[in-house]
Structure formats: structure tokens, C-alpha cells
Specification:
By secondary structure, the protein is of the alpha/beta class. The protein contains 13 helices and 11 strands. About 45% of the residues lie in helices and about 15% in strands. Strand 3, helix 2 (about 45-60) and strand 4 (about 65-70) form a beta-alpha-beta unit. The longest helix is centred in the middle third of the chain and has 21 residues, at about 215-235. The structure holds nicotinamide-adenine-dinucleotide and zinc ion. Nicotinamide-adenine-dinucleotide binds next to helix 2, helix 4 and helix 5.
């Protein structure tokens, strides 16, 4: 018996569904048929994903023939050069505005193919088929797309909502455990922002999830997507930005140059711990909550300190990265801090000098 979880992202005329089911890839044709033209669908993917999951997608599509455009895996592909060649290839294939491009891969492919879809012929259709945990719980939903430029992460991009998101947790069978753990950090982030009950569930089932237990993955993905769908529906362009909770994490990523040295999710894990510690030191959050966050993330094998993240503590340098943040406005950076687990809030009154001193103390 099939048990497809359907979650709606309610955006008026641009509403769409996120479907979650183990094995969805094996019957993708059923869901993707309405989007094919002449029984063909263009699928943008990376070499690695296509090598391990391409055949399943192809078989699942049945009579629909996928036309794969394969890119190099890795964050470096989120560049003007790769975008430009991707757009050229889409145009050479005769993409029309009414066509749908399938983004089949992790967040890099989703962001890149999504951005290409937002500009080719002034915008064509997009379907997200995310294959990493991070992409399944976060990047494939919400319509944020883009590339890095000028050394800045996601500096250029567009909001372009997909028409459908197909999530098969079974894809994660081939994902390496470091990537799985990094994606898990985003799940924890969501729980810490606004769902204390879910955090408790994660404390109990996180281990099973990392062991790729199908039930645990399904539940965690469904809860995370439902949470994200709710936020997107009320604040599509994320002007209130609570879900970011990334002020610390982004600075750590910037310091390591957005590389394999520190994956995004690993930076998120260390950043979350720092945000809770900073909140506790300011008397905003009970120290026990701070300790629970650290214990859980560390127990799941994620970095929880500057040292574990491989970053020499240097407050001034890290604060420098924060000042380059897109959310910086009029010399102030809204900080996402916590009153406790599941109770994040935005603090506009944080002095960067205090943050600098705090980071310097985190040896
Ligand atoms: N748009 C958004 O809202 C949003 C949100 C969060 C992150 N992001 C972006 O997402 C990107 C990171 O995404 P990511 O963590 O998915 O990284 P990724 O896309 O680079 O994928 C990680 C690695 O896993 C491989 N891979 C993917 N799926 C696999 C599978 N099923 N089996 C085996 N290998 C597989 C890929 O080839 C790649 O080498 C960043 O660029 C970040 O900016 C975007
Ligand atoms: Zn993130």
C-alpha cells in the first residue's frame, strides 16, 4: 500500500504540492507525465547523482524519455560560467516557456537549474526532485534559486517556485553519511526554531534516521517540509527571516570559503550551538537548553564549536563576514537568538562588538 504524504505550499495561483514517499522515483512517470512534451523531459543533474540514481529515474519515467543535462558536482558549479552553459544547452534543446525542467540532485542542482528555469525564455516551468537530505528538507521547497558571484554566496538569484516537488527518501541510500549528517543539521535547525516537540522526537529517533531508517526519514522530512511550507506561505520572500537562524553559520562558511572543509550543514550545526550559547550567556535562554542542543548535535557527529568546525577563533574576522550578509541593513544585522528550544526570535539590538567578544571567548 502506498502512503504518499502530500503537503501543499499555499501561494494562491502559484500553489504546488510536495509529494513524499519512499520509492516515488520508481513511479515518477505517473506524476511527471503532465509536464512532459512529446514524451520528453529535460532533467538537469550532476554526474554523481546521475550515475547512482539516473537509472531509477529513467525506469520510473516509463515511456517518457529523460533528456539529461549533466553538470559537475559541487558548489563551484553555482557560477556564471556553468549557468551560462546550462542556459545555452537549454536553448539549444528548444526549451519553451511552457516546458518544465526537472532539477534532479542536491541543493546545488536545485539552485542552479531553478535559476536557469527562472530566466530562460523569461521563465519556464520547474520541478524539483531533490536527492540529498538538505535539498529534501529545505532547498527544494520555497522557490529560492541562484548562484554565487563575486565570492559571495547566493549573491545573484531569483524567486522561482516549482510546479511540483517529488521527494523519494529512498534516494538517500546512496548519499554518503557526511552529507546525510549535514542535511540532518537543517532538520534540527527547523526544530530548534519553532518545534520543541519535534526536537524531542529527534533526540529519540535521530540515530535511526542517520542509519537511514525509512520511517524515521519519512517523518522527519514530512515535518520539516510542512514547517517550511507554512513559513513560505506566510512570508514567501522571507522578509522576516526567522528560518535563517544562520548568522553564525554563514560567517563560519564564509571563513572556510564555502568548501568541502566545512559543509553548509556542518556550519549550521556549529552556528546553532553558538547561537544558543550566546543566547544563554545573555540570559535569554536556559543553560540546560543550550546543553541539550550541544549534546544532541555532537552525538549525531556534527561540529559544535569553532575548534571542531576547524576555525581558529577570531571574532573580528568572523564579524567581518557577518557584515557582508545580505540581511545587513543600515549597519545592523538582525540576529536570530533563542529563548529556548523551539523558541527562536529575531534580536535587532545585538551589538557586533559583543558578538566579537563572544566569539573570541569561544576557544
Ligand atoms: N534554495 C534554498 O532555499 C537553499 C537552502 C539551503 C541550501 N541551499 C543551497 O544548497 C546547496 C547545498 O546543497 P546540498 O547539500 O544538497 O549539496 P550538493 O547539491 O552539492 O550535493 C552534495 C553532494 O552529494 C552528491 N549527491 C547528491 N545526491 C546524491 C545521492 N542521492 N546519492 C549520492 N550522492 C548524491 C552530489 O553529487 C554532491 O557531490 C548550497 O549551494 C546551498 O546554498 C539552498
Ligand atoms: Zn541552510
Amino acid at each position: 500500500v502506498r502512503r504518499v504524504t502530500r503537503i501543499e505550499v499555499a501561494l494562491g495561483g502559484r500553489s504546488y504540492e510536495v509529494l513524499i514517499e519512499e520509492g516515488l522515483l520508481d513511479c515518477s512517470g505517473e506524476y511527471l507525465r503532465p509536464y512532459a512534451r512529446d514524451n520528453r523531459l529535460i532533467a538537469v543533474s550532476d554526474e554523481t547523482v546521475w550515475a547512482v540514481q539516473g537509472e531509477r529515474l529513467t525506469r520510473g519515467l516509463g515511456r517518457i524519455e529523460p533528456v539529461p543535462i549533466l553538470l559537475q558536482p559541487g558548489e563551484d558549479s553555482k557560477s556564471w560560467d556553468v549557468l551560462s552553459s546550462l542556459v545555452d544547452r537549454l536553448l539549444a534543446l528548444g526549451v519553451e516557456r511552457s516546458d518544465h525542467i526537472v532539477a534532479f540532485g542536491g541543493g546545488v542542482i536545485g539552485d542552479l537549474a531553478g535559476f536557469a528555469a527562472s530566466i530562460v525564455k523569461r521563465g519556464c516551468g520547474l520541478i524539483q526532485v531533490p536527492t540529498t537530505l538538505l535539498a529534501q528538507v529545505d532547498s527544494s521547497v520555497g522557490g529560492k534559486t541562484g548562484i554565487n558571484a563575486c565570492g559571495l554566496k547566493n549573491a545573484v538569484g531569483a524567486f522561482h517556485q516549482p510546479s511540483l516537488v517529488l521527494i523519494d527518501p529512498g534516494c538517500l541510500a546512496t548519499l554518503d553519511s557526511r552529507q546525510l549528517r549535514a542535511g540532518y543539521a537543517e532538520v534540527v535547525k527547523y526544530a530548534l526554531i519553532e518545534d520543541a516537540v519535534f526536537f524531542e522526537w529527534l533526540e529519540e529517533h535521530g540515530r535511526a534516521l542517520l542509519d537511514r531508517d525509512a520511517e524515521a526519514l519519512h517523518h522527519a522530512i514530512a515535518v520539516s517540509v510542512a514547517g517550511k511550507a507554512r513559513i513560505v506561505a506566510t512570508d514567501e520572500r522571507e522578509t522576516k527571516g526567522k528560518r535563517a537562524l544562520h548568522t553564525f553559520g554563514h560567517a563560519l562558511e564564509a571563513e572556510t570559503g564555502f568548501s568541502d572543509r566545512l559543509l553548509h550543514g556542518e556550519a549550521v550545526a556549529a552556528g546553532l550551538t553558538l547561537a544558543f550559547r550566546f543566547s544563554a550567556e545573555r540570559g535569554l535562554c536556559p543553560p540546560e537548553d543550550c546543553e541539550r542542543v550541544r549534546t544532541h548535535l555532537e552525538g549525531m557527529g556534527l561540529p559544535v564549536s569553532l575548534r571542531q568546525a576547524g576555525i581558529p577563533s577570531d571574532g573580528a574576522k568572523l564579524v567581518g563576514h557577518m557584515m557582508a550578509d545580505k540581511k545587513m541593513s543600515r549597519g545592523r544585522l538582525p540576529f536570530i537568538l533563542a529563548r529556548g528550544i523551539g523558541a527562536a526570535f529575531i534580536d535587532d539590538g545585538v551589538e557586533l562588538s559583543q558578538v566579537e567578544a563572544f566569539l573570541d571567548s569561544q576557544l
